[in-house]
Design a protein that fits this description.
The structure is a single chain. It is built from one helix and eleven strands. With 138 residues, the chain is mainly β. Strands 2, 3, 4, 6, 7, 8 and 9 form a seven-stranded antiparallel β-sheet that branches. A four-stranded mixed β-sheet has the order 5-1-11-10, with no helix packed on it. The radius of gyration is 17 Å and the shape is globular. The protein starts with a helix and ends in a 7-residue tail after the last strand.
């Protein structure tokens, strides 16, 4: 029993196993130009898992973890289960897709315009995700 517990501690210390955040994550999706909420936006959690490979080092892969959560009329969505290295896709009709990366307790957002990540800071316990309106084109 001690060997199993010690092995679990080693895996957790190595970052192979991450505990889920019991509080979850509250997100508010807003228009990056106007600051108004984007109702119906979908927030989808992608979780990670280490995968063994034949004749190669193990690698980390991300996969969709359940169905996406739709934002309410005020742009709020709540994810019950999260972990330290989750990734989130935020989508809404008429907006560029947002890609939120979580690194420990910090969040960054990249979107389709330039792809450069920019930091996001929770406001009052809610992570505000500004989506850029999609260019309607010529």
């Amino acid at each position: 029993m001690r060997a199993v517990f010690a092995f679990g501690l080693v895996l957790a210390a190595a970052g192979v196993v991450e505990a889920a955040d019991p509080k979850g994550l509250r997100v508010r999706v807003v228009d990056a130009v106007t600051g108004k909420p984007v109702p119906g936006a979908t927030v989808e959690r992608w979780a990670s898992q280490w995968q063994p490979r034949i004749l190669a080092l193990p690698a980390k892969f991300w996969f969709p973890a359940g169905k996406g959560v739709a934002a309410d009329a005020d742009g709020y969505a709540a994810l019950e289960k999260t972990a330290g290295d989750d990734r989130y896709y935020v989508r809404a009709d008429g907006y560029e897709q947002g890609f939120v990366v979580r690194r420990g307790s910090k969040f960054e957002l990249a979107d389709g315009q330039d792809g450069k990540p920019r930091p996001l800071a929770p406001e009052g316990g809610v992570l505000v995700v500004p989506l850029r309106p999609r260019d309607p084109g010529p």
